[in-house]
Amino acid sequence: MSNNDQETRGFGDTSFSWKAYDQYRPPYPPSVWSLIFSYHQSHGAQLTAALDVGCGSGAASTTLAKHFSAVKLVDPSEHNLEAAKARLGSEAFKSSLPRPCEITYSVLPAEESAVPPASQDMVTIFETIHWTDAPKAMDQAARALKPGGTLALVHYGPRCRILDNPHAEHIWNDFWLAWTKATCQPDTDETHIRGIGASNTGLKHVLLDAGVWEHGARRIRINCGFKEEAAMPMADADDVPMAENHVQAERESLKEIERETDWDMLVEPEWFKNLSQTCQSSTPLPHDFDEKTAGLWRDLNKALDNGPKENGKVRITWPVDVVLATRI
Questions:
Q1: What's phi and psi for 26, nearest 5 deg?
Q2: pLDDT computed for residue 13 by the predictor
Q3: I need a surface site. Which of 54, 200, 274, 320 has the fewest CB within 10 A?
Q4: Residue 236, SS3 per DSSP
Q5: What is the pLDDT of residue 239?
Q6: Residues near 8 by beta carbon (within 8 Å), at least 6 away in sequence
Q7: How far is the C-alpha of 128 from the C-alpha of 175, rounded, in Å?
Q8: What per-residue confidence (pLDDT) applies to 226?
Q9: Rounded CA gap, 240 and 197, in Å?
């Protein structure tokens, strides 16, 4: 969502359905906002202005607007901003705000300046940083923040976890490995390759420069109960170059939240296929991809049918990485 190529292909394509995306992807639950605002308040930062980078349909901004006096949404796709305007511009949403909020929009990628220097109390980059040139996006976030302002990054892997059904989860993993291999070909757009390699690390690929961010930045992993070193594995290293790990354990606070249940969802078995269709690639899937993966879907449905359910539904949860940092 934060590279110009994405404006005409992938998530920025005018045919892309934000309605489906919002239906099958998780909302940002109260627990993650509690982490963000507790951190923000502990550093004495203000609630005047916030910048939502790579905003998509404005999911994060709906919460920001309830806390800040002014919120600016930026995205490289006009299509995405139109979806955000429909959400935040409705009378129902405006009437839900505890106080008036000035909401503005700009068509810009994360790597370009959207606001004056040192003008923002918070910059959020949710489910976006992996599609960007991360060092450039981080430079712009740092430039936008006031001293003492908060950077909040959130990333969840589209490979959700299927709880208490390891057989189904193994098949689900095999589907994502097949999807990644099919979309990461020699002629695939560099943005997609880079995005998958970064997503595999969660947010470990994000470098927090010691000259820019205060000591004690927080890295929080939630529901990442995978055995692999990668936080949210979607690809084999043989298929996609993995992003470099930039975690600095000596100056960053690392925390693992093994289970946070408000990232859970109860879903119908057909939900999994609908979720997979919310993932976009700048390279179209091969024409025979559905045929080649039909067996995986049959096996997955059988494993789900034979696995535990709650009122006929399957419990899943989302693996999540959060980074919170304070501008020097």
A1: -80, 145
A2: 75
A3: 274
A4: coil
A5: 76
A6: none
A7: 23
A8: 60
A9: 6
Which H/E stretch holds residue 255?
A: strand 252-257
Paired strand residues for 51 = 72, 123
Contact 204, 242 (CB under 8 A): no
Q: Answer whether 143's CB lies under 8 Å from 117's CB.
A: yes
Structure tokens at 262: 């408000």
DSSP assignments along 88-134, one per residue: HTSHHHHHHSSS--EEEEEE--TTS--S-TT-EEEEEEES-GGGS-H
- Strand pairing report for 217-222 and 265-267: unpaired
Query: What are residue 323's DSSP bridge partners?
Result: 153, 219
Residue 39's pLDDT is what? 98
How far is the C-alpha of 163 from the C-alpha of 154, rounded, in Å? Answer: 22
Give pLDDT, residue 231. Answer: 54
- Write the DSSP symbol of residue 313: B
Q: Mean pLDDT for each consecutive 10-residue tract of the chain (328 residues)?
A: 43 83 96 98 95 97 98 97 97 96 98 97 97 97 98 93 96 93 87 89 95 97 71 70 92 96 97 93 87 98 98 96 97
What lies within 8 Å, CB to CB, of 325 at 6+ separation is 150, 151, 208, 213, 214, 217, 218
Q: Cα–Cα–Cα angle for 208, 220, 69, nearest 5°? A: 75
